[in-house]
C-alpha cells in the first residue's frame, strides 16, 4: 500500500509511464518502500535524493513522501492498517465493482475519492488529490474499473 502511495504521489502532474520506468529507483531511494524507514528520513536525505537521477527530483514531492510516510504510520496506528482506514470509506467496507462498457465512461475521480482525499489532506497528506486518490484505489483493487467483458474483470478483486 505504501509503495502505491509513493508512486501515485510522485506521478502527480506526470504520465504514469514516467513513474513506472523509475519504479525500481524509487524502491531503492525510499528504503524498499519501508514506511518506518522513510518516516525517519531527514533534510540530509532530501538533499541526497535531489541528486538521484533515477527519481523525479522535485523537492516538494520528496519532502511529501517523507511526510506522507509519517501520516501513513499514524493511520496504521489509529486504524490497525492503511487498508482498514481506506475500507471505512468503502460501501460496507468492500471494494467497488463498476460496470463500465467503454473507457470513456471511467471517471478521473468520484465522490468516494473526493471524500478520502479530503480526509487525507486534513490529516496532512500531500500530493494526494482526488484524481491521484482514485488512481490509487484502482491500483490497489479497491475500485474495479475493468470493462464488462474484460477477462480480468472478476479476477482483480
Task: Explain how this protein is built.
With 157 residues, this protein is mostly helical. The chain has a single domain, classed as Orthogonal Bundle (Endonuclease III, domain 1), CATH 1.10.340.30. The chain is built from nine helices and two strands, in the order αααααααβααβ. The radius of gyration is 16 Å and the shape is globular. The relative contact order is 0.15.
Which descriptors apply to this entry?
157 residues, Endonuclease III, domain 1, mainly alpha, two-stranded parallel ribbon
Shape: globular
Q: What would CATH call the homologous superfamily?
A: Hypothetical protein, domain 2
Give the terminus-to-terminus CA distance.
15 Å
Can you give the mean pLDDT? 95
**Run of helices and strands:** HHHHHHHEHHE
User: Biggest β-sheet, characterized?
Assistant: 2 strands, parallel
Structural class estimated from helices and strands: mainly alpha
Q: How much helix, percentage-wise, in residues? A: 40-55%
- Output the CATH topology: Endonuclease III, domain 1
The total domain count is 1
Count of beta strands? 2
Number of helices: 9
Query: Beta-sheet strand percentage?
Result: under 5%
Radius of gyration: 16 Å
Strand order of the largest sheet: 1-2
| CATH class descriptor | Mainly Alpha
The CATH architecture can be named as Orthogonal Bundle
Poorly predicted runs are none
Amino acid at each position: 500500500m505504501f509503495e502505491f502511495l509513493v508512486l501515485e504521489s510522485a506521478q502527480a502532474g506526470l504520465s504514469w509511464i514516467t513513474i513506472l520506468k523509475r519504479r525500481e529507483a524509487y524502491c531503492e531511494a525510499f528504503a524498499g518502500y519501508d514506511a518506518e524507514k522513510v518516516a525517519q528520513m531527514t533534510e540530509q536525505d532530501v538533499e541526497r535524493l535531489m541528486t538521484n537521477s533515477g527519481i523525479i527530483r522535485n523537492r516538494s514531492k520528496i519532502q511529501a513522501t517523507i511526510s506522507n510516510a509519517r501520516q501513513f504510520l499514524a493511520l496504521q496506528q489509529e486504524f490497525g492498517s492503511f487498508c482498514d482506514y481506506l475500507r471505512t470509506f468503502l460501501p460496507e467496507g468492500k471494494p467497488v465493482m463498476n460496470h463500465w462498457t467503454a473507457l470513456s465512461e471511467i471517471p478521473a475521480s468520484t465522490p468516494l475519492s473526493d471524500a478520502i482525499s479530503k480526509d487525507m489532506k486534513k490529516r496532512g497528506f500531500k500530493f494526494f488529490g482526488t484524481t491521484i486518490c482514485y488512481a490509487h484505489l484502482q491500483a490497489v483493487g479497491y475500485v474495479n474499473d475493468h470493462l464488462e467483458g474484460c477477462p480480468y474483470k472478476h479476477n482483480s478483486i
